[in-house]
Amino acid sequence: MRAQCLEMSIPNGSTYRIYLSRGLLDGVGEKTASLVAGRKALIVSDANVAPHYLERVCGSFARGGFEVAHEVVAAGEASKCLENASRLWDACARCGLGRDGVVVALGGGVVGDLAGFVAATWLRGVACVQVPTTLLAMVDSSIGGKTALDIDAGKNLVGAFAQPVLVACDFETLATLPEAEWANGFAEIAKSAVIEGGGFYEWLAAHAEGLRGRDYTVVQGAVARSLVFKGRVVAADEREGGVRECLNYGHTFAHALEAAAGLGTVSHGRAVAEGMRFAARLGTEAAGVTESFVAQQAALLDALGLRALDAAWPADELFARMAFDKKARGGMLRFVFATAPGIWQTMTVDADLVKIHLILWEQGVG
Hints:
There is one protein chain. This protein is an alpha/beta fold. The radius of gyration is 20 Å and the shape is globular. The strands form three sheets. A seven-stranded mixed β-sheet has the order 1-2-9-6-5-3-4, sandwiched between helices. The N and C termini lie far apart (41 Å). The chain is 47% helix and 20% strand. The protein has 13 helices and eleven strands. Helix 3 (82-94) crosses helix 4 (109-121). It folds into two domains: 4-176, 3-Layer(aba) Sandwich (Rossmann fold); 187-213 and 226-364, Dehydroquinate synthase-like, alpha domain, CATH 1.20.1090.10.
């Protein structure tokens, strides 16, 4: 496995590097020292990740000349809440983190969103370094600048856009991932490949077995291709006013399912994969999706171990959640549809048609 460095450039002037390699945890502090003027760092992790990697990352920042503080939150989606954000703001105050300081997110997407939101809001914005430790966070939430908290009404409804100053993807951290977390990453990689199409889709279809089998050369290739794809999309549309909506493929259904099931009950990746299947079936009536593509996409998801769910939740509840989704516009439900690899569109869909397909999904699952 060779080290890689990708560059993310945003039209607003933000530019940062994304490092892909092994052993990055031991050097991330020194890399950060050249990017920020201050020498105070708050490292945020969770109870699953901290025992494995927190000491190494704290040591790296200490070697970089930082005065280091750290906070550990409970693992799981429930930690992405206002209570923890308040706790971390208090931690920023205790350690005297000024505008030239840095907040470091060491963990998966929950820690990345939470720490990123705290960095975006503390003193109206301080630097954030993302050190993703899950495949899902590496290919999705660690880049692009979205930060968020969950509230009772739904997932990611409170948030801010704030780009990190550095992203360090250390593949050593994947060694401690449970099976479910690998599946989460596979779903986002599949989503990106379907939307990107072309060489990415063909490469993933050919390497699905290697990815599922943890061939780290293939894993790095999937991460790099996903990051290049997402980087290009975000550079064109940082704040989701247009083309960035393609990244929501499968997510209108997925977020409703996650909320209806209870946050953390159905993993994000499993929900996204199910959302891709749902969008394809709905698209046969709403957007001209062919049965051939429905089967083609299903075969790719199956090859990655992302088989259809065998449990359902009430159609009425899912519809109500969708109607309150932050992607809705003027009370209309919006879906991203892929009609072939690399060909997609965003459409508003008649509510009755959505309800019919939700009922069919509820009746057909299991």
